Amino acid sequence: MRLVLGEKGIPHELVRENPWEKRDEFIDMNPAGETPVIVEVETKAVLIGSQPIVEYFEETTEKAPMLDGNARARAEVRRLVQFIDERLYGDVVAPLMHERMMKRLVSRQAPDTGALRQAMRVGNNYIDYLDYLLDNRRWLAGSSLSLADFTAAAHLSVIDYLGALDWRGHQQTKDWYSVMKSRPCFRPLLGERMENIAPPAHYDKVDF
Amino acid sequence: MRLVLGEKGIPHELVRENPWEKRDEFIDMNPAGETPVIVEVETKAVLIGSQPIVEYFEETTEKAPMLDGNARARAEVRRLVQFIDERLYGDVVAPLMHERMMKRLVSRQAPDTGALRQAMRVGNNYIDYLDYLLDNRRWLAGSSLSLADFTAAAHLSVIDYLGALDWRGHQQTKDWYSVMKSRPCFRPLLGERMENIAPPAHYDKVDF
């Protein structure tokens, strides 16, 4: 979401929300209790969920199209976004965050090393699939840079931050990720740090 | 998906796929291994996933708009669709199908009555939320019939088929569902039966 706002040059102020706190005011805004939520300053209108928000700004701004091409090309972008946001997230990012972040910050338990190994093993298969796509296409969804690239790069950055990415054998995805990292919209995110969890030394470097 | 194809009058032939069989040919078509998948007869082009498919037909057909209104109205439709497809599905429909269908047809176990009760209790909360929306709006997402209505009606029909819907205290949603059921696109679906699992007597009746 933040990468898309950055690419499109939409001014915004970040407000931190910890969804696991289930604040009443936040649930009133979004019954699903999830981020991202955008509140328009002037109208107080609320926009909810990364896919609806991206489609909204895609319809209302010209700059940095995220769903370029014809209807079929857009269907491929949307397929990949859903695949990454649901499957890669559910199988890899969510378990890694649970073991490495939530257990440390919220429940103060040690991570389950078996669960970590499993998430990294499955993550490797997903990156094989990205390698395969990039063997055949300029960008993940086809000939245009699209929401699929920003979505995948965002999730990979979380996996990489948590030290769970082994780039060996993934030259195609590594080259593509280096290009994504060097975009101006990516720089502010790479400069941020989680509380008490340091990323590996290569995390914010464009050459890694 | 089938309700939308029916509303838009898009001719199609149904091909049964049991995703849990993980057929190689199906995984080759859709690496996520999930239905729905549409193959265009003439071009052999493959469209994957209900949200990308609906957006595709929304962009390429005029009839029966599913995302009517302005960008903000569309954001609300997409928010509700995601909420229903992910949360209502994950919290209610998936556990019910697991307990009542998958355990019977695939693993031949008895359902866990605690899990069933929990799914029905949570399902009741979701229908309270639909009641609340319909107290304030003509249709679920606003003044126009939209994809949110078809998505919710499809999931409710599965819950109802599995005998897990208690309509008492839900007059608004009941009236709305009766209207949805009476649409021609809904009739063929209400006539179908799962193997070895009969729905309650009221399941396919418009007055229930």
Automatic annotation (TrEMBL), chains A, B:
<dbReference type="InterPro" id="IPR036249">
    <property type="entry name" value="Thioredoxin-like_sf"/>
</dbReference>
<dbReference type="Pfam" id="PF13409">
    <property type="entry name" value="GST_N_2"/>
</dbReference>
<dbReference type="GO" id="GO:0004364">
    <property type="term" value="F:glutathione transferase activity"/>
</dbReference>
<dbReference type="InterPro" id="IPR010987">
    <property type="entry name" value="Glutathione-S-Trfase_C-like"/>
</dbReference>
<dbReference type="InterPro" id="IPR004045">
    <property type="entry name" value="Glutathione_S-Trfase_N"/>
</dbReference>
<dbReference type="InterPro" id="IPR036282">
    <property type="entry name" value="Glutathione-S-Trfase_C_sf"/>
</dbReference>
<dbReference type="Pfam" id="PF00043">
    <property type="entry name" value="GST_C"/>
</dbReference>
<feature type="domain" description="GST C-terminal">
    <location>
        <begin position="70"/>
        <end position="200"/>
    </location>
</feature>
<protein>
    <submittedName>
        <fullName>Glutathione S-transferase</fullName>
        <ecNumber>2.5.1.18</ecNumber>
    </submittedName>
</protein>
<feature type="domain" description="GST N-terminal">
    <location>
        <begin position="1"/>
        <end position="65"/>
    </location>
</feature>
<keyword id="KW-0808">Transferase</keyword>
<dbReference type="InterPro" id="IPR004046">
    <property type="entry name" value="GST_C"/>
</dbReference>
